[in-house]
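Q: Here's a chain of 206 amino acids. Please give me its 3D structure as C-alpha coordinates.
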Amino acid sequence: MTHLVFLGGKGGVGKTTLSCAISYQLAARGRRTLLVSTDPAHSVGDVLDMEIGPAPRRVVDNLYAMELDLEKIALEKGSRVKNIAVKILPPDVYEAFSKYVDAVVKGPGVDEYTLIEKILDFAKSEFNYVVFDTAPIGHTFKLLQLPDLLKSWLDMLRRQRLSYVKLSKNVAKLKGEDYRGDPLLEFLEETAKKIDAVTQVLKKPK
Protein backbone atom coordinates (compact mmCIF):
# COMPACT_ATOMS: atom_id res chain seq x y z
CA MET A 1 0.00 0.00 0.00
CA THR A 2 1.26 3.48 -0.90
CA HIS A 3 0.71 6.14 1.76
CA LEU A 4 0.05 9.67 0.52
CA VAL A 5 1.28 12.58 2.66
CA PHE A 6 0.16 16.14 1.89
CA LEU A 7 1.81 19.20 3.41
CA GLY A 8 -0.31 22.32 3.13
CA GLY A 9 -0.21 25.89 4.37
CA LYS A 10 0.22 29.49 3.32
CA GLY A 11 3.15 30.56 1.22
CA GLY A 12 6.41 30.87 3.14
CA VAL A 13 5.52 28.74 6.18
CA GLY A 14 7.99 25.97 5.39
CA LYS A 15 6.06 23.39 3.35
CA THR A 16 9.00 22.62 1.08
CA THR A 17 11.54 22.41 3.91
CA LEU A 18 9.31 20.07 5.91
CA SER A 19 8.42 18.01 2.84
CA CYS A 20 12.11 17.42 2.14
CA ALA A 21 12.87 16.65 5.80
CA ILE A 22 9.98 14.18 6.17
CA SER A 23 10.87 12.48 2.89
CA TYR A 24 14.51 12.17 3.92
CA GLN A 25 13.57 10.66 7.30
CA LEU A 26 11.22 8.13 5.68
CA ALA A 27 13.94 7.13 3.22
CA ALA A 28 16.49 6.83 6.05
CA ARG A 29 14.12 4.37 7.76
CA GLY A 30 14.10 2.16 4.69
CA ARG A 31 10.81 3.40 3.20
CA ARG A 32 10.90 3.82 -0.57
CA THR A 33 9.77 7.44 -0.87
CA LEU A 34 8.84 9.83 -3.67
CA LEU A 35 8.81 13.57 -3.01
CA VAL A 36 6.49 15.41 -5.42
CA SER A 37 6.34 19.17 -5.85
CA THR A 38 2.96 20.36 -7.16
CA ASP A 39 3.62 24.07 -6.65
CA PRO A 40 4.00 25.91 -10.01
CA ALA A 41 6.85 27.85 -8.35
CA HIS A 42 8.94 24.75 -7.62
CA SER A 43 11.61 25.04 -4.92
CA VAL A 44 12.31 21.40 -4.01
CA GLY A 45 15.39 21.49 -6.24
CA ASP A 46 16.65 24.55 -4.39
CA VAL A 47 16.32 22.84 -0.99
CA LEU A 48 17.94 19.64 -2.23
CA ASP A 49 20.58 21.64 -4.13
CA MET A 50 20.15 19.61 -7.30
CA GLU A 51 18.31 19.75 -10.61
CA ILE A 52 14.85 18.17 -10.26
CA GLY A 53 12.57 17.67 -13.27
CA PRO A 54 9.20 16.18 -14.20
CA ALA A 55 10.47 12.60 -13.90
CA PRO A 56 11.52 10.96 -10.59
CA ARG A 57 15.22 11.53 -9.86
CA ARG A 58 17.21 9.66 -7.22
CA VAL A 59 18.29 11.90 -4.35
CA VAL A 60 19.71 9.34 -1.87
CA ASP A 61 18.98 5.68 -1.17
CA ASN A 62 15.20 5.09 -1.12
CA LEU A 63 14.43 8.73 -1.95
CA TYR A 64 13.34 10.13 -5.31
CA ALA A 65 12.02 13.59 -6.14
CA MET A 66 10.13 15.20 -9.02
CA GLU A 67 8.59 18.56 -9.89
CA LEU A 68 5.34 18.09 -11.79
CA ASP A 69 4.72 20.19 -14.90
CA LEU A 70 0.92 20.22 -14.58
CA GLU A 71 0.47 22.62 -17.50
CA LYS A 72 2.31 20.26 -19.87
CA ILE A 73 0.33 17.26 -18.60
CA ALA A 74 -2.96 19.15 -19.15
CA LEU A 75 -1.97 20.06 -22.72
CA GLU A 76 -1.14 16.41 -23.45
CA LYS A 77 -4.54 15.40 -22.02
CA GLY A 78 -6.24 17.96 -24.27
CA SER A 79 -4.45 16.53 -27.30
CA ARG A 80 -5.70 13.03 -26.44
CA VAL A 81 -9.28 14.30 -26.16
CA LYS A 82 -9.02 16.02 -29.55
CA ASN A 83 -7.57 12.87 -31.12
CA ILE A 84 -10.70 11.01 -30.00
CA ALA A 85 -13.08 13.76 -31.11
CA VAL A 86 -11.60 14.16 -34.60
CA LYS A 87 -12.60 10.56 -35.40
CA ILE A 88 -16.28 11.00 -34.53
CA LEU A 89 -17.22 14.67 -35.06
CA PRO A 90 -18.01 16.43 -38.36
CA PRO A 91 -15.19 18.82 -39.40
CA ASP A 92 -17.11 22.01 -38.61
CA VAL A 93 -18.16 20.71 -35.18
CA TYR A 94 -14.65 19.44 -34.47
CA GLU A 95 -13.13 22.85 -35.22
CA ALA A 96 -15.33 24.51 -32.58
CA PHE A 97 -14.77 21.63 -30.15
CA SER A 98 -10.99 21.83 -30.63
CA LYS A 99 -10.99 25.54 -29.76
CA TYR A 100 -13.09 24.79 -26.69
CA VAL A 101 -10.64 22.11 -25.51
CA ASP A 102 -7.70 24.48 -26.05
CA ALA A 103 -9.42 27.10 -23.88
CA VAL A 104 -10.32 24.60 -21.16
CA VAL A 105 -6.82 23.15 -20.73
CA LYS A 106 -5.48 26.66 -20.14
CA GLY A 107 -8.33 27.69 -17.83
CA PRO A 108 -8.73 27.89 -14.04
CA GLY A 109 -8.84 24.64 -12.08
CA VAL A 110 -7.04 22.60 -14.73
CA ASP A 111 -3.88 22.20 -12.62
CA GLU A 112 -5.96 20.76 -9.78
CA TYR A 113 -7.83 18.41 -12.12
CA THR A 114 -4.56 17.24 -13.68
CA LEU A 115 -3.13 16.57 -10.23
CA ILE A 116 -6.25 14.59 -9.27
CA GLU A 117 -5.49 12.09 -12.03
CA LYS A 118 -1.80 11.95 -11.10
CA ILE A 119 -2.69 11.20 -7.46
CA LEU A 120 -4.33 7.97 -8.59
CA ASP A 121 -1.17 7.00 -10.46
CA PHE A 122 0.91 7.71 -7.35
CA ALA A 123 -1.49 5.73 -5.14
CA LYS A 124 -0.84 2.68 -7.32
CA SER A 125 2.90 3.21 -7.51
CA GLU A 126 5.79 1.10 -6.23
CA PHE A 127 6.63 3.64 -3.51
CA ASN A 128 5.82 3.12 0.17
CA TYR A 129 5.25 6.86 0.64
CA VAL A 130 4.52 9.75 -1.71
CA VAL A 131 5.04 13.12 -0.04
CA PHE A 132 3.40 16.13 -1.71
CA ASP A 133 4.88 19.60 -1.39
CA THR A 134 1.71 21.45 -2.38
CA ALA A 135 0.96 24.92 -3.68
CA PRO A 136 -0.34 27.51 -1.14
CA ILE A 137 -3.38 26.37 0.84
CA GLY A 138 -6.09 27.79 -1.45
CA HIS A 139 -4.96 25.46 -4.23
CA THR A 140 -4.93 22.49 -1.84
CA PHE A 141 -8.50 23.17 -0.69
CA LYS A 142 -9.60 23.33 -4.33
CA LEU A 143 -7.81 20.06 -4.98
CA LEU A 144 -9.59 18.23 -2.15
CA GLN A 145 -13.01 19.62 -3.16
CA LEU A 146 -12.59 18.94 -6.87
CA PRO A 147 -13.47 15.21 -7.08
CA ASP A 148 -17.08 15.77 -5.94
CA LEU A 149 -17.48 18.67 -8.35
CA LEU A 150 -16.01 16.69 -11.23
CA LYS A 151 -18.27 13.73 -10.51
CA SER A 152 -21.40 15.89 -10.90
CA TRP A 153 -20.04 17.45 -14.09
CA LEU A 154 -19.07 14.10 -15.62
CA ASP A 155 -22.45 12.57 -14.73
CA MET A 156 -24.15 15.36 -16.68
CA LEU A 157 -21.87 14.90 -19.71
CA ARG A 158 -22.37 11.12 -19.65
CA ARG A 159 -26.16 11.49 -19.60
CA GLN A 160 -26.01 13.82 -22.58
CA ARG A 161 -23.71 11.50 -24.49
CA LEU A 162 -25.86 8.45 -23.66
CA SER A 163 -28.81 10.17 -25.34
CA TYR A 164 -26.71 10.62 -28.45
CA VAL A 165 -25.49 7.01 -28.32
CA LYS A 166 -29.06 5.71 -28.00
CA LEU A 167 -30.04 7.69 -31.10
CA SER A 168 -26.96 6.46 -32.99
CA LYS A 169 -27.81 2.83 -32.14
CA ASN A 170 -31.34 3.26 -33.45
CA VAL A 171 -30.11 4.86 -36.67
CA ALA A 172 -27.57 2.07 -37.19
CA LYS A 173 -30.30 -0.52 -36.61
CA LEU A 174 -32.56 1.12 -39.17
CA LYS A 175 -29.71 1.08 -41.68
CA GLY A 176 -28.94 -2.54 -40.91
CA GLU A 177 -25.46 -1.60 -39.72
CA ASP A 178 -23.49 -2.69 -36.68
CA TYR A 179 -23.05 -0.08 -33.97
CA ARG A 180 -19.31 0.50 -33.48
CA GLY A 181 -19.35 2.11 -30.06
CA ASP A 182 -18.66 5.66 -28.97
CA PRO A 183 -15.04 6.63 -28.08
CA LEU A 184 -16.12 9.85 -26.39
CA LEU A 185 -18.54 8.04 -24.07
CA GLU A 186 -15.85 5.47 -23.30
CA PHE A 187 -13.46 8.31 -22.45
CA LEU A 188 -16.02 9.95 -20.14
CA GLU A 189 -16.75 6.67 -18.37
CA GLU A 190 -13.04 5.92 -17.96
CA THR A 191 -12.47 9.39 -16.50
CA ALA A 192 -15.44 8.99 -14.13
CA LYS A 193 -13.97 5.72 -12.83
CA LYS A 194 -10.67 7.47 -12.17
CA ILE A 195 -12.39 10.26 -10.26
CA ASP A 196 -14.32 7.72 -8.15
CA ALA A 197 -11.08 5.90 -7.39
CA VAL A 198 -9.30 9.11 -6.38
CA THR A 199 -12.22 10.07 -4.14
CA GLN A 200 -11.92 6.75 -2.32
CA VAL A 201 -8.15 7.22 -1.92
CA LEU A 202 -8.50 10.74 -0.52
CA LYS A 203 -11.20 9.71 1.96
CA LYS A 204 -9.24 6.81 3.45
CA PRO A 205 -7.89 7.86 6.87
CA LYS A 206 -4.74 5.77 6.33
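Q: Can you summarize the key feature?
A: The radius of gyration is 20 Å.
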